[in-house]
Protein: GNAT family N-acetyltransferase
Amino acid sequence: MESLTDSEWDALQPAPPLQQSRSYADTMALLGAQVLRGLLNDVPVQMIARRGLRVIHRPPANVHLAPLAQHAGLTVATTTGPGILPLVTARHHAEWDLTPPPEALRKALAPKWRGHLNAAHSVEISEGSDATLGNLLNKDTMQGRARGYRNLGAAFLAVWRGERLILHVSRKDDMLAAMMFLIHGAAASYLIAWTSAEGRRIEAHRAMLWQAALLLRGRGVTRIDLGPVDAGNPGLAGFKLGTGARLVNLGPTGLVLPL
Structure:
């Protein structure tokens, strides 16, 4: 691959998916991974390498990865296209386009979603600190154990090289709900969220997600990746897609084979 400088990469990937961003690469490098980045047939590609395994999350849709299979080791990619032997079924994410003006974004909300947001107009939202993040991570870890999932861990977030946005709803010292976004270029990822029963009752998450959209848009973010949409969790799927976000097929995770 033809190598690229940081400024060249940023120019080619102004609003990349999280795993294709420079901030992600810098963070993984600090955690001991080898980062490989460059042009593959004139298309920018970033991969993380460890012990002969190259992992490419969400490369550009038009990239032809088969040449990488000619090198020693294995290449695994989350994408569609020729030369991909699927190993894990395709995932779908919700992506929310923030380029329309706020009034258009609000109008695009599903009627039920907008109604719940209207009911949450008095919810007081604050931006969080490192202490808020620590509290959120602890609650998310316990929630993940109960529900059988894992997010990017504290080690990753401790050395994250990009911007982030943390919002929370609290009463006195009691956190009722919180969420965190990582900002990478002109894109952001909705990464961690937690709510108590009281936070759920007052629709804190809808209020925070709407406030986050406005704040991130004001910072130049054009798209929020709201994360996976799973048919097995229709409530969460409806929460994400009710924003007006579009459903994006990321393709399967598969082994890259030579053609």
